[in-house]
Amino acid sequence: MQLRYQFRVYPTPGQQNALAKAFGCARVVFNDGLRLRQQAREAGEKYVSDAELSKRVITRARATPDRAWLGEVSAVVLQQALADLNTAYRNFFTSISGKRRGRKVALPRFRSRKDSQQAIRFTRNARFKVLDNGRLRLPKIGDVSVRWSRTLPSDPSSVTIIRDATGRYFASFVVQTTDEPLPELDSEVGIDLGLTHFAVLSDGTKVAAPKFLRRAARKLKRLQQALSRKRKGSNRRRKAVVQVARAHARVADTRRDWQHKLSTRIIRDNQAVYVEDLCVTGLGRTRLAKSVHDAGWASFTAMLEYKAVRHGRTFGRVDRFFPSTRMCSQCGRVNDKIVLNVRAWDCSCGAVHDRDVNAAINVLAAGQADNSNDRGAQVRPGLVPAPRGEAVTHPDAARSTRSVEGTLVL
To answer: Known catalytic residue: 356?
Structure first.
């Protein structure tokens, strides 16, 4: 299994300039390749192949005076930028043909130096190396200091250097690891996700919603107001932009760390975990959009999914149209629609239900039914890759996460 390990790196001012040059060169190569294919399409010419594109925007371009500075960075960085462009086009073509599941994928867009995140990738061909003194040696950049929170289980196949909106630098390694199955347990759990309580388990446990964004709303409002008063293009405005980005990054990091700890505890304590397949995209368009995005249901269920695969647990999703809230967990009767402010209800069979606990029990029962074969034995679903969150990630590279836990990589 491939996992991604991410660590904070601290480049020197000179190394930061070298990284900025590498970010810029990768961005220019990506945009040149995209522009060349767009021009070929508008002129009615055939699609420019990957090999021809590499020859024209890298090999020949470096021989011209306008692009001679491309030779100052590692060639692997430039090749990986084109690999990202090719992946974006393949995703678009498979999306419009109907072969790709999920939402439609648009054509790749031009990258900007003002994008909130910049990233470059080094593969084994670049000969990057983790030195004995703990530093990371990158070609044409130097030995970068790394803050190691844990050891790498194997030699990394690639490393992605990321600069976020706050100016922090991260090194994300892709490593090959073996599965770490946990001892088998008899307990199984269904989870009902909500806003008042982030998660309600079928055993009656209720996890309060931390609401990280709501708690930081006052500080974010003050920083946004200070930003709006700064003159555009001034140094003070640039500093204010960084302050706002840091506040948002602190909220995101806190939420991710909390979700990692909760998902790990649930996976360790249960042999099987079942959740409802919520339409987060649709809920994000309602009047509850801010609370829905603050909860982070999608990232939490993704953590449960890949950790279940890694540790030999069973994970399942119940259909989003399953009436888990309206169904009585005792007699199976489906009632009429229940408004949100009703937190408890009585069934005609005499059962008294807590709305969320009853939904979690129904999710557990539906998940167990979906994961049983004809003889009633539990079957384990196949491997499911985790979604990518990194803008310039190749399928063989890895997704950006905290160093708290690794994630699956396509």
So the answer is: yes
Q: Are 209 and 196 in contact, with CB atoms under 8 Å apart? A: yes
The active-site residue, picked from 192, 294, 305, 405, is: 192
Say which of 32, 294, 356, 390 is annotated catalytic.
356
Q: How confident is the model at residue 372 (pLDDT cuts 50, 70, 90)?
A: low
Interatomic CA distance for residues 343 and 155, integer angstroms: 52
pLDDT confidence bin for 141, thresholds 50/70/90: very high
Buried b (16+ CB within 10 A) or exposed e, 57-79: bbeebeeeeebeebeebbbbbbb
Choose, from 32, 84, 188, 276, the residue flagged as catalytic.
Answer: 276
First to last CA, the chain: 10
Q: What is the full DSSP assignment across 141-210?
A: TEEEEEE-SS--SS--SEEEEEE-TTS-EEEEEEEE----PPPP-S-EEEEEE-SSEEEEETTS-EEE--
CB atoms within 10 A of CB 116: 13
Q: Which of 39, 64, 36 is nearest to 50 (CA)?
A: 36
Amino acid at 70: L
Is residue 370 among the annotated active site residues? no
Token couple for 4: 């991604």
Give me the residues paired with residue 197 across strands: 208
| Residue 315: other Cβ atoms inside 10 A | 21
The CA radius of gyration of the chain, in Å to the nearest whole number, is: 25
- Cα(409)–Cα(106) distance, integer angstroms: 22
**Cβ distance 273 to 266 under 8 Å?**
yes
Is 346 a catalytic site residue? no
Positive/negative CA dihedral, 244, 247, 251, 254? positive
What tokens appear for 157 in the block? 């196949």
| Residue 396 in this model has a pLDDT that exceeds 50 | no
